[in-house]
Amino acid sequence: MRLNSSVSGLTLLRVDGRSQPLKPILTNGRSTLLVFLRHLG
Amino acid sequence: MAQLRRHQTEFAALQTDIVTISFEAAWRAEIWLEETGSPFPLWLDPDRTAYHAFGLQRSFWRSWGPKNLWYYARRLGRNGRKPIKGKTDTHQLGGDFILEPDGKVLLAYRSHDPTDRPAVRLLLDALENGRSTT
Which residues of chain B neighbour A24 with C-beta distances below 8 Å? Predict the structure, then answer.
């Protein structure tokens, strides 16, 4: 299974509010474990 | 999260970065980071675009079953960490994905309920063996 190209174009936010595109970390030559957390309560 | 922290060096040895993603507001995320001391980057997905793009779900019934109520009761008793005040969506289920730089998905694990997370061994095996687990 391969990652949909639309997914790699997603942009998230850092806690300080800055934008964080997903693509750089997915193309840095290393594997990535993305952990989607449940609610933080 | 505690298990990932304990095995952090094994992931690093396998050339793997760990990134956590939350749909929560920044102020809640800041409190959570402060309380847990998580060593991993925390990125926010407030409109849940990424959450939905990865096919993750929400469920009232799977979030508030006996198993999860027991988990929360034990957690309160064990470490005393009180819930962060304020409104949140407790029905999101979460999940874990291992992605290769070439776009290959080594593992896609969509949690059945909020306490359902893949064992660290499963994650490490996927990295070591390149097995596809969905």
Answer: none
Domains defined along chain B, listed by start: 2-129 (3.40.30.10)
Read off φ and ψ for residue B12, nearest 5 degrees.
-65, -40
Q: Which residues of B touch A1 (CB under 8 A)?
A: 104-105, 108, 132, 134
Q: What is the pLDDT of residues B75-84, one digit of tens each?
A: 666 665 666 6
Q: What is the pLDDT of residues A3-24, one digit of tens each?
A: 777 787 899 999 999 999 998 8
Question: What residue of B is the nearest CA neighbor of A20?
Answer: B43
Handedness of CA B81, B87, B89, B95 (dihedral sign): negative
Among B18, B51, B101, beta carbon nearest to A35: B18
| Strand locations in chain A (E) | 11-14, 19-21, 31-36
